[in-house]
Amino acid sequence: MAGDSRFPDVDTDGSEKSEEMEIVVNVGGVRQVFYGDNLNQYPETRLAELVNCLSGGYDSIFSLCDDYDPGKREFYFDRDPDAFKCIVDVYYFGEIHMKKGICPICFKNEMEFWKVDLKFLDDCCKAHLSEKKEELEEIARRVQLILDDLGIDASESRWKRCQKCIWKFLEKPESSYPARVIAVLSFLFILISSVVMCVGTIPDLQVVDAEGNRMEHPTLESIETACIGWFTMEYVLRLISSPNKLHFALSFMNIVDVLAILPFYVSLTLTHLGAKLMELSNVQQAVQALRIMRIARIFKLARHSSGLQTLTYALKRSFKELGLLLMYLAVGIFVFSALGYTMEQSHPETLFKSIPQSFWWAIITMTTVGYGDIYPKTTLGKLNAAISFLCGVIAIALPIHPIINNFVRYYNKQRVLETAAKHELELMELNCAEGKAAGSRSELEDPSREGKEGPFYSNRIKVSHSDTFIHLLSEEKHYRTRLQSCK
User: Which of 147, 265, 280, 314 is the most interior residue, by most CB within 10 Å?
Assistant: First the structure.
C-alpha cells in the first residue's frame, strides 16, 4: 500500500460527474447514501469534499475519513450517529435542529468536524448552546477562583500575599474554619443591630433628656455603636484587601454596606458640629431622617444568604412578568375606580369623592387587602367591587408562575454549577496524583528521562478523560476535562 497511493477502484479519469456520484457514509455503524448534487450545495463541508476526493488517492481519502472500503465506496467515521442525523438535514432543508438529549457543546464540535457553519443552526438551538457555554464559563470561573485561593505565588510581595489572605478570610467563609466564624459573627451583628433599631422605638425603653425629648436608651446606643464599629472595620479591611477597588466600591452590596454605616457618622457629626451652624430643631430633624436609613443594614443579610441572592436574581430575570403584572393592575385600577366613582355618586353619603381618591379603593380591593376605610354603599357599587376583586386575583396569579419558575431554575442551576466545580477540582487532583505517580515510575525506570518525558506523560493522562475542554482552565490547548462530556 505504501508503494501505491491510489486505489484500483477509484475513478481517476473524471468520466463520472461528481453531481451524479453516489457515496455511502458509515457513521458509528449507521449507513447512509448521499448523492453528489445534494452535497455540492455546500462545497466547503466534509461530505462535499468526499465526492471529489476519490481522484486524490490514499492521502486525500484518509485525510477526510477514518477508513474506506474501495469495493463498496463506503467511507467510515467514528463519530456520533445521532448528531450526524441532525447535521445532514442542512443538505435537504437548509437548516439544522438539535435533537433533545444531545449535549450542545458536543453537537457544536460535531458540526465543526463536518465543516458545517453554525449559521445553519436554528435560533432556538443557538440559544441552548449559548446557555450551555455560559454555564461552562461560570464553572471555569469558579474553579479558577478556588485555584487562585489555593495557589501561592512566591514572586508576589508580602503585602500582596497579606491582601489575599485578608480578602479570602472576609469574603470566602468556606476557605477555613476561622473564616466561617467571622461570617457567623458578621451575621449576628447584623441581626443584633436590626433588633436594637426596632427595640429602640419602644416608648417604655426610651429615656427623656434635659429638654423633655425622648431618645434611645444609652445601653442600646452603646450596642449600636459597637455594631457600627464592626461594620466599619469589616468594610475598611475588605476595601483595602480588594483586588479591584473601583469594582468593589461600585458593587451593589458594598453600596448597601456604606448606606448602613454612613448615617451613624453623619448623625454624630451633625449632633456635635451642626448645632453651631443651624438651629437645634433642624439638627434633630436631620438626625431623625438619617436614622431611618439604618434599615438598609437588613439588606446586608443578602451577603450571607444564598436564598436572598437567588430571589434577587429571579426578580431581575422576571422584569417582563413584573411589568405585565403592573400593567394588568394599572388598567384594572383605572377602570374600576372610574366605575366605582360613577356608580356611587347617586348615594348621598358616598365615600368616593373623586376618581384619584378612588384609586386607593381600587388598589386595596384588587390586591385583596381591603382596609375598609372606603367602601361602596350602592348595589351597583358592590357588584363593581366584587368584579374588581376577582379580576385582581386573576391579574396577580397569572404572572406568578413564571417568576417562581425563574427562581427554581436559577436555584437548581447554582447547585449544579457548585457541584460541577467541586467535581472538576476532584478530577484535577486525581490527574495531578496520577501524573506524580507516573513521573516517579519513569524516574525509577530511567533516571535520564527526569524532567523530559515525565511531564509529557502526565499531560497525556490528562488528555484521556473527555472529548472537549474548558479554555479558561487550560494553559495548554490540549488539556481536557470531564465537564463537557454528554451526561
Answer: 314
